[in-house]
From TrEMBL:
Transmembrane segments: none annotated. SUPFAM superfamilies: Galactose-binding domain-like. One of its GO terms (cellular component) is meiotic nuclear membrane microtubule tethering complex. This is SUN2 protein. One of its GO terms (molecular function) is protein-membrane adaptor activity. It is found in: Nucleus inner membrane. PROSITE patterns: SUN. Keywords: Membrane, Transmembrane, Transmembrane helix. It comes from the Eukaryota.
Length: 129
């Protein structure tokens, strides 16, 4: 517990550079269980999450998590991490309209389960070919 990527507030984003170009199929998000939490709650877990890729390629600022003005992004999925289910949850991505592989994926956390000070993510895994 506590060994997570924590960001201030209940919203945040990260752009993940993949080790190779990938035809994305799913994303897995992990948090700890209520039983593993010292407080007995996991209100810092992400709740509403969106996954994007850039249609114009990636370079420079995007690797730092900033999208250039006017850059087109495609939403591959929106989902809710459910704190009542398994702590490791995999969500399929809509990739049928994207016949190419990508080297970066953006994870946008739109809300958490009630912690006003920070949100924690323990692991993100990107799946594909």
């Amino acid at each position: 517990p506590g060994n997570c990527w924590a960001f201030k507030g209940n919203q945040g984003q990260v752009v993940i550079r993949l080790p190779a170009r990938v035809h994305l199929t799913a994303i897995t998000v992990q948090h700890i269980t209520k039983e593993a939490s010292p407080s007995g709650t996991i209100i810092s877990a992400p709740k509403d999450i969106a996954v994007f890729v850039s249609l114009l390629g990636t370079c420079g600022d995007l690797a730092l998590g900033e999208v250039r003005a006017g850059e087109e992004e495609t939403l591959l999925g929106m989902f809710t991490y459910n704190t009542e289910k398994d702590p490791i949850q995999t969500f399929p991505l809509k990739n049928m309209l994207l016949p190419r592989a990508f080297s970066h994926v953006k994870l946008l956390v739109k809300s958490n389960w009630g912690n006003p000070w920070y949100t924690c993510i323990y692991r993100v895994q990107v799946h594909g070919k």
